[in-house]
C-alpha cells in the first residue's frame, strides 16, 4: 500500500473504534476513595511480595515468589519505590528503607550497567528520596538522616562519568561501575539513552555544587541535537564516536521517547531556555511529520517518508507531555485513540499495527508499563473530565483481573490470551501504581505530597518526584530575599577540576573519571558559567515565586543576547506553557504560582498555521 494512502487510512480510523459510545458510568466521589484505597492495597501486595521473597535482589518473580538481579544486584525495586512510600505517607517503611540503603548499599562492584536505566531508576530514586528525607517541609524528614543517599548518588554518578568520554559528548550505553568503559563496549546508543540524563545529573550538580554532572548531560543533548536532520528530526540510534545515525527511523516511541520529555522538563525544572528552544523545534517537527491525527507514525528522519505505521506502547506518554506543554486538544484525541487499544485487549501491546489493526507480531506483551496511566492522570488533572476516571477504573480492573498473581503483579506475555509471565519490573511500583493512586486521590480530594506539599514537582521519566525548590531551580539567580539558597561565602564560581573530581564526600574508595575530556568537547558552553549558588545574569522568575531581587551591576551582555534572539516559528501547533484549562490545575514546573494567565512561548505563527487551542 502506498504511503499517502496508508496515512489517509490511519487518519480515518475513528478513535472510538473499540471504545463504543460510552466509557461507562461516571466514577463518584465515594468510589474514587474506594479505588484509591484499592490501588494502595495493590502497591502493598506487590511491595510486600518483593520484600518477603526477593529483597535485596533487584526484582521480584511474582509467580514463583523468588527474586532476580536484573540491573546491578543492589535492591533496585526498593530504591525505585522509596518516593512512592513517602507519597503514601508510610513514614515507618520509608524511614526503615532509607536507613537500610544508607548502611548497606555500595557501588564499588564489578558490574556493567546501563547508563540510562541506572540513571533513571537508581540515581533518580536516591536523589528523590534524599530530597524528601532531608527536608522538614515534606513532612517525611528523618531526624537521623545525614545525607547518606546523596553521597551514594554522587558516588554512583562519578562511576558513570567515564561513559561520557566520547568525541561527540554522547555517552556509551553501558559502563562498568568498577573499571569504567570496557574496550569492547558498543559505540551505538539510543537517542533516549543519551538524552534522558539531564534532570538527575542537573539536580546532582546543584546538590553537590559540582558542575561536572550537569555539563556532561547537557553536552550529550547538544551532541544529539547538533546531528538532527534538516527537518529537525532525530533518529533512534547513533554512533557515539562518529556521530553517524545507525538507525534513522524518527518517532516518539521506542529509543527516542524520553529525549523529548526531558527537553521540556529540564526547562520546567531549571528554567534553562536552551532546553525550551530545542523542545520547541523538536516538538514542531514531531507534529509536522510524525502526527497522523490522532496517531503517530515513524518516518525517515531525513525525508519524512513513512517507515512504520505502528502504535508503540511507549508513545502513550506523549499526551501527558502535551498537557505540560499546554497543547491539550491533540492530547485528548490521541489519548482516546491509545485507550481504544487498551479497551480492545485489556492491556496495551508493545506494538499495534495501524495498517492491519492487529497486534504486531513479536510485540504482543504488556510489561506493566505506566505511560497510558501517566497521560490519563495528567489529562484528568488538566481537564477534570470524568472520562479519565472511567479510564483509570478500567485500567485498574484489567490489572487486578489479568496481572495480579501470587506474590505481586505479572508481566502479560500475550495481551490476546492474557498469559502471565514470571517477572515484575521495578517501575510498576515507581510509576504504574503511583500514577493510578494520584489519579484517584486527586478525584477524592487530594491529601498528598504532590498536590498539597510545599513545592511543585516535576516527575522524572521513572516517575520520581523532583521538587522545584530554590536550591534546585534558582541556583543561578542573583537574589536577595528571605529563604533563598544563596550563601555569602559561596558566591564565586567554583570550576571543576580533576583534583576536585577525586573527592568523594561519602568516603568510599572510588575509581573516578578523568574530567579533562570536557575541555576537549566541542559542545562545551562557550560562555562563562556562573557559580551554582550565587551570581547569575538576572532573576527570571521573581514574580512566579513572589520574591524581590537585585539586578546584577552589568546586564548589558544579557540585554544584547536577548535582542538577538528570534521568535520560533510554529507551523501547526503552538506550544503553551503553564496553560490553565481548569482553575484548579497547576503545572508541576518552576513557573507562575500567582498569575493564572497563560505564559506563551515566544513564537511567530505562519498564516497557514492551524491553531489548536
TrEMBL record:
Keywords: Endoplasmic reticulum, Glycoprotein, Glycosidase, Hydrolase, Signal. Pfam families: Glyco_hydro_47. It comes from the Eukaryota. It is an enzyme of class 3 (hydrolase). It is found in: Endoplasmic reticulum. This is alpha-1,2-Mannosidase. It comes from Solanum pennellii. Its EC number is 3.2.1.-. The keyword Cell inner membrane does not apply. Residues 497-520, 551-613 are annotated as: Disordered. InterPro entries: 6hp_glycosidase-like_sf, EDEM1/2/3, Glyco_hydro_47, Seven-hairpin_glycosidases. PANTHER family: ER DEGRADATION-ENHANCING ALPHA-MANNOSIDASE-LIKE PROTEIN 2 (PTHR45679:SF6). Residues 1-24 form the signal peptide. Gene3D superfamilies: 1.50.10.10. Belongs to the glycosyl hydrolase 47 family. Residues 562-572 have a biased composition (Basic and acidic residues). Residues 497-510, 576-585 have a biased composition (Polar residues).
Amino acid at each position: 500500500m502506498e504511503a499517502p494512502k496508508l496515512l489517509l487510512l490511519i487518519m480515518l480510523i475513528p478513535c472510538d473504534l473499540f471504545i463504543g459510545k460510552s466509557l461507562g458510568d461516571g466514577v463518584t466521589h465515594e468510589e474514587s476513595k474506594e479505588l484509591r484505597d484499592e490501588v494502595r492495597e495493590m502497591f502493598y501486595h506487590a511491595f510486600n511480595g518483593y520484600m518477603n521473597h526477593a529483597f535485596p535482589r533487584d526484582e521480584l518473580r511474582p509467580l514463583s515468589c523468588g527474586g532476580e538481579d536484573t540491573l546491578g544486584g543492589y535492591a533496585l525495586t526498593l530504591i525505585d519505590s522509596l518516593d512512592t512510600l513517602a507519597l503514601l505517607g508510610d513514614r515507618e517503611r520509608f524511614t526503615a528503607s532509607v536507613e537500610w540503603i544508607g548502611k548497606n548499599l555500595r557501588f564499588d562492584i564489578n558490574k556493567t550497567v546501563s547508563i540510562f536505566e541506572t540513571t533513571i531508576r537508581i540515581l533518580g530514586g536516591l536523589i528523590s528520596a534524599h530530597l524528601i528525607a532531608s527536608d522538614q517541609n515534606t513532612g517525611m524528614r528523618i531526624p537521623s538522616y545525614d545525607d547518606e543517599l546523596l553521597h551514594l548518588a554522587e558516588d554512583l554518578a562519578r562511576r558513570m562519568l567515564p561513559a561520557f568520554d566520547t568525541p561527540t559528548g554522547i555517552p556509551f550505553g553501558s559502563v562498568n561501575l568498577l573499571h569504567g568503559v570496557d574496550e569492547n563496549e558498543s559505540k551505538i546508543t539510543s537517542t533516549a539513552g543519551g538524552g534522558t540524563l539531564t534532570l538527575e545529573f542537573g539536580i546532582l550538580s546543584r546538590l553537590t555544587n559540582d558542575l561536572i554532572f550537569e555539563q556532561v548531560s547537557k553536552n550529550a543533548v547538544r551532541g544529539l541535537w547538533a546531528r538532527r536532520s534538516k527537518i529537525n528530526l532525530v533518529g533512534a540510534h547513533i554512533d557515539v564516536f562518529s556521530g553517524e545515525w545507525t538507525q534513522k527511523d524518527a518517532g516518539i516511541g521506542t529509543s527516542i521517547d524520553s529525549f523529548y520529555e526531558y527537553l521540556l522538563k529540564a526547562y520546567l525544572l531549571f528554567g534553562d531556555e536552551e532546553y525550551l528552544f530545542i523542545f520547541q523545534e523538536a516538538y514542531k517537527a514531531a507534529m509536522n511529520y510524525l502526527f497522523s491525527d490522532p496517531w503517530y507514525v515513524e518516518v525517515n528522519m531525513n525525508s519524512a517518508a513513512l517507515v512504520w505505521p505502528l502504535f508503540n506502547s511507549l508513545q502513550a506518554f506523549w499526551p501527558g507531555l502535551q498537557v505540560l506543554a499546554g497543547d491539550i486538544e491533540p492530547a485528548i484525541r490521541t489519548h482516546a485513540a491509545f485507550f481504544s487499544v487498551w479497551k480492545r485487549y485489556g492491556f496495551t501491546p508493545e506494538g499495534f499495527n495501524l495498517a492491519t489493526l492487529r497486534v504486531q507480531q513479536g510485540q504482543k506483551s504488556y510489561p506493566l508499563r505506566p505511560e497510558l496511566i501517566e497521560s490519563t492522570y495528567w489529562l484528568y488533572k488538566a481537564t477534570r473530565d470524568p472520562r479519565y476516571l472511567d479510564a483509570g477504573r478500567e485500567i485498574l480492573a484489567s490489572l487486578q483481573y489479568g496481572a495480579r498473581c501470587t506474590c505481586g503483579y505479572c508481566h502479560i506475555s500475550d495481551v490476546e490470551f492474557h498469559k502471565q509471565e514470571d517477572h515484575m519490573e521495578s517501575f510498576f511500583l515507581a510509576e504504574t501504581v503511583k500514577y493510578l493512586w494520584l489519579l484517584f486521590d486527586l478525584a477524592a480530594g487530594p491529601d498528598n505530597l504532590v498536590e498539597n506539599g510545599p513545592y511543585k514537582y516535576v516527575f522524572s521519566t521513572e516517575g520520581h518526584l523532583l521538587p522545584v525548590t530554590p536550591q534546585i531551580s534558582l541556583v543561578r539567580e542573583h537574589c536577595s530575599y528571605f529563604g533563598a539558597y544563596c550563601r555569602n561565602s559561596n558566591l564565586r564560581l567554583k570550576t571543576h577540576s580533576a583534583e576536585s573530581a577525586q573527592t568523594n564526600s561519602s568516603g568510599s574508595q572510588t575509581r573516578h573519571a578523568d574530567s579533562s575530556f570536557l575541555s576537549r568537547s566541542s559542545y562545551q558552553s562557550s560562555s562563562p558559567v556562573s557559580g551554582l549558588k550565587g551570581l547569575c545574569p538576572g532573576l527570571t522568575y521573581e514574580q512566579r515565586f513572589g520574591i524581590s531581587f537585585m539586578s546584577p551591576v552589568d546586564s548589558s551582555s544579557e540585554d544584547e543576547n536577548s535582542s538577538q534572539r528570534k521568535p520560533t516559528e510554529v507551523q501547526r501547533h503552538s506550544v503553551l506553557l503553564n496553560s490553565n484549562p481548569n482553575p484548579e490545575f497547576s503545572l508541576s514546573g518552576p513557573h507562575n504560582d500567582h498569575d493564572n494567565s497563560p505564559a506563551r512561548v515566544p513564537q511567530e505563527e505562519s498564516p497557514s498555521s492551524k491553531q489548536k487551542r
